Amino acid sequence: MTRGFKKIITELLKQERKFFTLNQIVKDTGLKREDVRDVLIELCIDDYLKRIRKTIVGKGFEPFPTGKGPALQNVTYRVRKPKALAEKIIPKYRGENNAADRMWFIIRKKGKFTRRDLRVLTCDMKGQPTMSKETVRWYTKMLHRAGIICVSGRGEWTLIKDVGPRRPYIGDQVKRQKAESRRQ
Amino acid sequence: MKEKFVITKNVKKFQMAMQHINHKTIGIERIALVEGLVGLGKTEAALHYGAHNGAMMLSIWPRMTQHWLLSDIVRELGFKPPWRTGTLIEKIQEELMQRPRTLIFDEIDHFFRDRDPKRMDALETLRKIHDLCHCPMIFIGENGIANKVKDLSRINDRIVETVYFEKLEFDDVKSFVGEISDYKFEADVIDKFVKDGNGRIRPIMNLINAAENYAQAHQLKTVTAKDLK
To answer: Predicted ipTM?
Structure first.
């Protein structure tokens, strides 16, 4: 995947643009012109966008690498499939009704819960636990970091932000945390 | 206390009823009614079932109207509820036809409060959704709900199974304690649990917890009634 792929699509969808130019996206995302151009070409090939026209911006030449490149072009695009484009950046589920789904179901229905509740109610039909203490601990910790649940007592958690029946994607939280710790 | 879901006789009955209503024969109804006193584990059993089978579970609020109920169902199915009631029903129908799932409605007795026709309409709407989508439905309510439903002949006819959650007796509590606790309890303690807890799981759990705390503090392996006095 090309660099800035998610950011560019998010920017396209954020303003519900039907038409846009390369310059606009470069300005809004703050990414390199070459990277944005590559992503947009990729999306054109996959039929998500259509190239409408290109205008030569001034008489300048691309400065890098030789200083004698083709003239700067500002290409105008049209969004052909906004829904499909939105689906492209939605995180994929690993499966339906997995451990996290089950825990999310119980969290939503109970509102106030303990880690024990999650472990007990996700037991299999014979009553045996299906997930480890570590899994439950990790999941509650991640939800807490994402600001979805909060601690409301000793070992008790409360749901503060109900995002619907589809469990929230918290995978990015780990990446963000790692990135932040690296920066510090 | 062990972190384990104990399959009591009530839970077994509940699971059997779920198997009975999850058939594929068109023309045979698929509504089950669950009734029992407070604290017998009806909601917990439903949560356990719902979590494993991808069911939709909705707790009924006091004075819930038809529109409120339908909006909540649409929200639970994962959509933004539209304004019009007709569109709400269309949305529910469309979704349940494509992806059928069990619908669980808890605290259904709120519909019978004051015999308000608005709330009766909501219940009739659920019956209609069941007829249209042919999806299994579970109504959970407190003691006496079955008698109240009997007055509504259209719904009563469609109930194929009624599960009565009963109070736990001595043997049930004995096996329950044996499965859930790390300590040994003498027969007199179990008898005390049955009497003090009135055969209900919620208070019995609290009593077991208190007894275990005592046993841990005093380093006991077997707890007798004398210890708990």
So the answer is: 0.90
